[in-house]
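Budget justification, computational time. The allocation requested in the original proposal was used primarily to generate structure tokens for proteins on the priority list. As evidence of use, we reproduce two of the resulting records. The first is shown immediately below.
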Amino acid sequence: METPEKLLQRVGIQGLAAAILMIIFGALIIAFPALISWLVGIYLIVVGALNLAGEMEKRGAAKAESPESGATQAEK
């Protein structure tokens, strides 16, 4: 699994934005301790969706680059 920093950089969110988001989440957890389950849940859903999208993108790129993707299937 990718580190959150690498994942955020891959999708275009730089370190500053990630740091600000972490500070906001931390402040919310201190102010409202009951929010921790919601914030962790949201984080896991977002990271999971981004990982899934990244893997689908990689597989699509790998299929497009493979030399046997179109010609050999049409011949069969």
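The second record produced under the same allocation is shown here.
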Amino acid sequence: MSEPDNTMETFAAYGIAPEHIAALLASLRPQLPGEVFYVFQAGSATGAGGSGGTGKPRTLLAFASPDVALLFAQRNGLIKDQTPPRLRAVPIPRLLLAMAVGPNIRALLFVPDSSDPQRGRLPEGVVVERAALGGAA
């Protein structure tokens, strides 16, 4: 599948070979249920690849459906009455790019629809570590 925007050029600007990302995408797609995943958008303007926060390494959770994302948030007390969660639909290449440019994101966890997230635990899914990006990431 061809990437419709300048995502691949942006990888190249960060020293990551677009061919490497294309191969990574080709290996990931058969393992994932779709092309778009849902992430919680931070309260600040940092979005999916936010570099704000504590500076601690973190794992970006990407859910196959909004329902599983909200279930995870409810079970883990992440939903506050005053601030309803904001989900953002993000294509797989953009999620990889968020990890490439977000210095605190050490891994992506793609959570399938079939996941039943338990309280206090990361859900099961497909993990992509930062090292899989190759290049200067």
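A brief technical remark on that second record: The longest strand covers residues 105-111.
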